[in-house]
Each structure stands twice: as structure tokens, then as C-alpha cells.
Amino acid sequence: MSEKYDAVVIGLGPGGEVAASRLLAAGRRVAVVERELIGGECAYWACIPSKTLLRPPEARAEAGRAAGTGRPEIDWPALRDYRDYMIRHLDDTAQVDGYRSQGATVIKGTARLAGPGRVEVDGQILEADHVIIATGSDAVRPPIDGLDQAEVWTNREATTLTDIPDRAVVIGGSAVAVELGQFLARMGAQVTLVQRSEGLVDREDPRVGQLTRAALEADGIDVRVGTRVRRVTRSGPATAVVLDDGTTVNTDVILLATGRSPRSAGLGLETVGLHPDQRGAITVDEHCQAAEGLWALGDVTGVALFTHVAMYQGRIVADNIIGRPRQAHYGGIPRVIFADPEIAAVGLTEAQARRAGIDLITAEIDLAESIARPWTYQLDPAGTLGILADRGQQVLVGAWAVAPLAGEWIHQAALAIRARIPIDTLLDQVAQFPTYTEGYLQALEQLAR
């Protein structure tokens, strides 16, 4: 016997939660299915714990850079306890109760499609006019010989750690590697970061990677770019990571930061005539629809593996189901790495813009040489902002910053790119003095010249 719903949501990470909550608020009958914890990867093993852990070492470093202050000590047990509070001690009881109080049917279990409009959860059949897949992604485990002999962490183990290791090898060079590598180094670990490409943060402009590397090396991290792990060996408690340049790094733990893959295996997509692409992603249209009555959002779509994109797609899906037709647009989506200094970007990189045939003009400014805010913020101020514009259209197409609080003020560029605000309009804006936002005016005037 089956039960009928207006919608069944498979996966209750941030995107699934947004979709479910909006549908419930609109009076729809909703069932939510989650195999782990309501809140998903972001709430328990990624965004929330990582940013909670990163903040105290950042605050300590900031105190050391501010005039007339010293560097406070970090109470690791207290920080660890607060991290556990922020991730709800890996307990989602309150979230389960919250959804039930909103009228949702909450089912804990593993779901798979059983044909159009049908979802099976541990033998129970749910029928729905709409099925929403929001199953997220998994950390990629690269095929490295001997890796299974070592103590290996993904973001999950790293963000729920109880003790700081003496030594760590971080494999990868993007957000997880940069953030957690810097955290471990600032907490006293000897960190070696191994990146196979020739630069860090290699999806951004090379200049961003150069500035990121300089920041990590200033924290004592041994950065190895253009280098691959050949194999891992272990003798007793000792783990050795052998690199393809012939060197060996001894470590206590290996942190994998080698990307994520959409979690679509075992979903029963074949029962509705769908097959994931070579990455494992479910292809969706501009409405986030994969097939009639079947929707997908978040990491499982492979569109952009960011929590904020999943939440945006959750709004798109819910609005379409409710009867407010809406298309997703992905211009002007910010990308932030919460390192110190923060690393933020939006829009196209220079290489992407040139491949698209854009008549590109660019500007880069040293913020300390251009505006007052860095000098009021810290001793030995630093920070860099870059912007990219379409010469013919006279609009911004990209921007990046490596600077304090960049994740906050990148949104001015994000809005300008998304709304295609003319450069003349941006030049006429009046920024609060003194703020980092003033840097945009300096960079835009350099473009205009």
C-alpha cells in the first residue's frame, strides 16, 4: 500500500530544506526522506563546522596584525565544544520535530525511484505528483596506491576532529585544501599541501592562486604544486607519502581535498528513463526539471557545487511546483574561500572571457596603495582586487579579491555582473568611507582610463 503526496523530497541538505519548507508554507502535502541527518553535509561536516573552526585562528592572527594588540591563546577544548554545539552534536532530532510540526511526513531511510511519481524507501512506496532529488555529493577518493593503509580524512573527519595531528599532508588545492590546510597549520600541525596542477585555486585566475600560495606559505605550509602523489606506504605508526618528484613526506594523517562527485548512484534513475552524465550528475533544464514531475537541485545536478546555489535552486523548484514559473540563471554567483585573507571571485575568469570572444579589459589594484581602509584595519596592510569588463558592452564580467572580508564585499561585483549594471552607473556610486568597497571605484577608474 502506498501513500500519496504533492511532493517527495529526497535529501534534506540546505537545498532540499529550502524546497520542502517553501512547499509546506504553500500548503502542499510533503514527505521528506533523509538517509543521514537533516541539514546535510553543509550543516554537519562542511560549511558550518569549517567556518566555526577557522574563525578563532583568524581572530588570533587579526589581533596580531592590529595596532597595539597582542595574540590571544586559543582554548582548543572550548573551540571543539563550540564546534560540537554548532553541528548539534550530530543530532537532528530538533530538525525532525520541526518538519513534523510543519506538517511534513519525515522518513529516515534510503530512497530510490520506483518509476514515474513513485519513491521506495526501505520497502515503503510513496506516490507524488512531484519528486525532488537533492542528494548532494560525496568526497572523491583518488586511486592512490597504498592509500588504504594510512589514516585518511575527508572533510568529514577533518571538521569533526578531536585532536590536532602533528603532521598532515593535504592533497588538493581548492577551497577545502586551502581552508583546512591553513586551519591545521595555525593550530600547530606541520602541513604539506600537494597540488597536481601548476597553481592553487586553479579554477580562478592564476593571480588568485599566486596570492593564495603566498598566504599559505606565510603560515608555514609547504606548498608543492605541479606534483602528484605516487604512492603511500606505512610501517607501524609511520606513514610516508611518496611524490612523483622523488621526494617523500612523512605524515600522521592524509587529508583528501580532491573534489566531490554528485551522489546519484542507486537512485533508480533508470526506472524513469534517465541516466546520469559521466560525472554522475543529473541533467536538468532551466527550471531544474529532469523529467516530467521530476526535479533535481544542488550538488547532484553538477551545475555548481555550492550551498548557496543549492538553496537558490530550491527556491526555483518550489516556485515552479507552486505555479510561479521561474528559470534559474547562474550569472554573478559568488565563490568564496574562507581563508585568511579571504579569497573571493565572481563571474568569468580572464581565460573564460577570452574563450567566449569578449573584448576584455582588466584592472588590478593594490588596495593598500589605493584606499584608506586597509591602513585602519591592520598593520602592514595588504589586499588585491581585480576586475574584468566587456569593452563593448561596458559591463563587468568578472571580479576577484584576496583581502580581508572579501567574501562580504564581493557581492557588489556579483550584483553588478548579474544585473549587468553599466560601468558608468558603478562609477557614480558613492561608497561609505573608509571601506574595502571603495576599491571598486579605484579599479573602475583604472578601467575607464
Set out the fold topology:
Elements: E1 2-10, H1 14-25, E2 30-34, H2 40-45, H3 47-65, H4 76-86, H5 93-101, E3 105-108, E4 111-113, E5 118-121, E6 124-133, E7 137-139, E8 152-153, H6 155-159, E9 167-171, H7 175-186, E10 190-195, H8 206-218, E11 222-225, E12 229-235, E13 238-243, E14 248-251, E15 253-256, E16 260-262, E17 289-291, E18 294-296, H9 307-322, E19 335-337, E20 342-347, H10 350-355, E21 360-366, H11 367-370, H12 373-377, E22 384-390, E23 395-403, H13 406-419, H14 423-427, H15 438-448
Helix pairs in contact: 1-9, 3-4, 3-7
What does the model show?
- Helix content is 33%, strand content 26%.
- By secondary structure, the protein is α/β, with parallel strands linked by helices.
- The chain folds into 3 domains: 2-39 and 92-138 and 261-322, FAD/NAD(P)-binding domain (3-Layer(bba) Sandwich), CATH 3.50.50; 147-258, FAD/NAD(P)-binding domain (3-Layer(bba) Sandwich), CATH 3.50.50.60; 335-448, FAD/NAD-linked reductase, C-terminal dimerisation domain (Enolase-like, domain 1, 2-Layer Sandwich), CATH 3.30.390.30.
- The strands form 5 sheets. Strands 1, 2, 3, 4, 5, 6, 17 and 18 form an 8-stranded mixed sheet that branches. Strands 8-15-9-10-11 form a 5-stranded parallel sheet.
- Helix 1 packs parallel to helix 9 (307-322) and helix 3 (47-65) crosses helix 7.
- It is globular and about 65 Å long.
